[in-house]
Design goal:
Layout lengths: L2 E4 L4 E4 L9 E8 L8 H10 L12 E5 L8 H16 L5 E2 L8 E2 L59 E5 L8 H5 L5 E3 L6 E3 L9 H5 L5 E4 L4 E4 L4 H4 L14 H4 L6 E7 L13 H8 L4 E2 L10 E4 L6 H8 L3 H9 L3 H6 L12 E5 L3 E7 L2 E6 L2 E5 L5 E6 L16
Length: about 425
């Protein structure tokens, strides 16, 4: 197979097609720390795209509870087990090596394409029908609590790691740089759009062989029995193209992004260079979070697909679990999120402030409002104002770090 460069892994890897990259890439950051598990995003996607006959079990967007939940059931544990067995059979270890020239270090193990069996493009499996049921399986189920008779932990339970824990993982198609679904399709019905990197399935070419379902490690390609074709998240591309009636001709965030009450999602387009890396754009909020501060990390980078949905890891879960899920940058990401820099604290205010994608931000400095210590180091908070601009340079958001407090007048205290 040809070699392509995967900057998540810090090295070249094997992939089915020659290296090619879009002009811009659809990308997003999800802040797990803010998610309340309300499933509003799930319902919005369902009501928009998968409400027709034959789509009853399809949940292109879902929120699952980790460590036990998953849709389809235990999807990640199954592919991780296959990858682990491939390493054992080959006498290799799935380790990361520190390297200053790469973002997260260098992955020395095998990806799902490099560990593929003869005749296959990637490791994978077809979930049985039962595993597509109950997308909320194990919702809000935590790990075992180690506490005393009064419910007080004998070992202590404080951030960043709790004795009993769970967290919500928000998932859509990752619109990967090197999608396993596209590599697997015998009909070449799956393609990556050159203008925005969105991965789509050509319904006219698809014949329902389910190879995309089998070999997508994230299980985000789904078979529809009434049409005998596969379908998947299409990143709400009419909104991304600026064709939505509300868009005024500029790219908009997807439906799942814009309805989020917890303000955990930030969606955008980033410019991609010829080598596949992000073009430097210091005033782009996604570039700041992913490339500069590196507090947002890819989901299971060891799969090798170079996913384009990034996550700010939860502070309270065991680090060993998080490193398996998000790679070796977890400690640094949580540290920078726990005590954010002045610029990062302002950028975090942009999450879910407007339906229009933000392509650039400016910060107006404000006064010092708080000083304290975080993890034994001094930390300061400033009431800065951040301004977000759309693709045409129009102002679409203006927020202060300190949120305004609105006090209800005495005569209306009990009006609700």
């Amino acid at each position: 197979m040809p070699e392509v460069f995967n900057w998540h892994l810090g090295r070249p890897m094997e992939y089915a097609f020659e290296e090619a990259h879009p002009e811009r890439q659809f990308a997003a950051v999800f802040n797990i720390n803010r998610c309340i598990g309300c499933q509003t995003c799930t319902g919005a996607c369902k009501a928009t795209w998968t409400f027709s006959k034959g789509q009853e079990y399809m949940w292109w967007n879902n929120v699952e509870t980790k460590p036990y939940g998953g849709y389809p059931h235990h999807w990640d544990m199954k592919i991780l087990q296959q990858l682990d067995e491939a390493h054992q059979a080959g006498g290799r270890e799935a380790t990361w090596r520190s390297d200053d020239s790469s973002k997260y270090g260098i992955y020395e193990g095998m990806t799902i394409t490099e560990a593929a069996r003869d005749g296959e493009q990637a490791l994978g499996y077809l979930p049985p029908d039962a595993e597509w049921t109950a997308p909320n399986f194990y919702e809000d189920t935590s790990t075992a609590y180690k506490g005393g008779p009064m419910g007080i932990s004998l070992d202590g339970a404080s951030l960043p790691e709790h004795q009993a824990w769970f967290f919500y993982l928000q998932r859509i198609c990752n619109h990967c740089t090197y999608p396993a679904c596209a590599a697997a399709c015998p009909r070449k019905a799956i393609y990556k759009r050159p203008e925005d990197g969105i991965v789509l399935i050509d319904q006219a070419r698809c014949r329902g062989y389910k190879k995309c379902v089998e070999q997508c490690p994230y299980k985000k390609s789904m078979y529809r029995g009434t049409t005998h074709t596969s379908e998947k998240c299409l990143a709400c591309y009419p909104r991304v193209e600026g064709d939505d009636p509300l868009s005024e001709g500029v790219p908009m965030e997807t439906r799942c992004m814009t309805v989020c009450p917890g303000k955990i999602r930030l969606n955008g387009l980033v410019e991609i260079g010829e080598d596949g890396t992000w073009v430097e754009d210091r005033q782009h909020p996604l570039y700041h979070l992913v490339q500069v501060e590196k507090i947002a990390l890819p989901l299971y980078p060891q799969f090798g697909t170079e996913p384009n949905i990034y996550y700010i890891p939860p502070r309270w879960a065991p680090r060993s679990y998080l490193k398996q899920m998000f790679g070796p940058g977890v400690d640094e990401a949580i540290g920078r999120y726990t005590a954010p820099s002045r610029e990062t604290l302002a950028v975090l205010q942009l999450f879910r402030t407007t339906q229009k994608m933000i392509f650039r931000y400016e910060i107006e400095e404000g006064p010092l409002v708080h000083e304290t210590e975080v993890n034994g180091k001094p930390w300061s908070m400033y009431d800065d104002t951040i301004i977000g601009f759309d693709s045409k340079g129009g102002e679409v958001a203006r927020l202060s770090v300190v949120e305004p407090l609105h006090e209800r007048s005495k005569e209306r205290l009990n009006s609700i």
